[in-house]
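Design a sequence for this backbone.
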């Protein structure tokens, strides 16, 4: 297995996302155009774990950005195919993302993980992530727009 950055949107990447994203969320997987936007965006790193046979076993998106207090990084949408879970794919993806963030000068890397994702939470803690004493807030803009 190898971890690499997807630098262009391909039909294979679209198919992989169509298979993987539903294992993480009810959100629709990205289209070819959306993947083009992601792979072409400065600071956005779409990582894929590829098996020896070429099959995509997992994906992770890392975003690095500058704010007034320094360069930060955020990991989102980590998903490993059910058939590959427990085999080190999530760790390999996350470690690769941490190297990219470090090279970009990030002071911190943040991520969130639902409590029900027990194996993922154990992995992140094993890799050195610590829970933060903070609140995470979210507003669903589509809902907010319709309420106005």
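Sequence:
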């Amino acid at each position: 297995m190898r971890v690499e950055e997807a630098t262009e949107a391909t039909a294979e990447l679209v198919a992989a996302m169509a298979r993987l994203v539903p294992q993480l969320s009810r959100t629709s997987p990205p289209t070819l155009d959306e993947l083009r936007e992601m792979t072409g965006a400065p600071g956005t790193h779409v990582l894929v774990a590829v098996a020896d046979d070429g099959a995509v076993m997992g994906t992770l998106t890392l975003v690095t950005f500058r704010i007034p207090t320094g360069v930060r990084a955020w990991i989102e949408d980590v998903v490993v195919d059910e058939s590959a879970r427990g085999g080190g794919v999530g760790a390999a993806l996350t470690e690769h993302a941490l190297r990219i963030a470090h090279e970009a000068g990030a002071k911190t890397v943040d991520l969130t993980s639902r409590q029900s994702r027990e194996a993922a939470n154990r992995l992140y803690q094993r890799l050195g992530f610590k829970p933060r004493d903070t609140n995470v807030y979210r507003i669903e803009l589509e809902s907010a727009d319709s309420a106005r």
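The chain has a mean pLDDT of 94.
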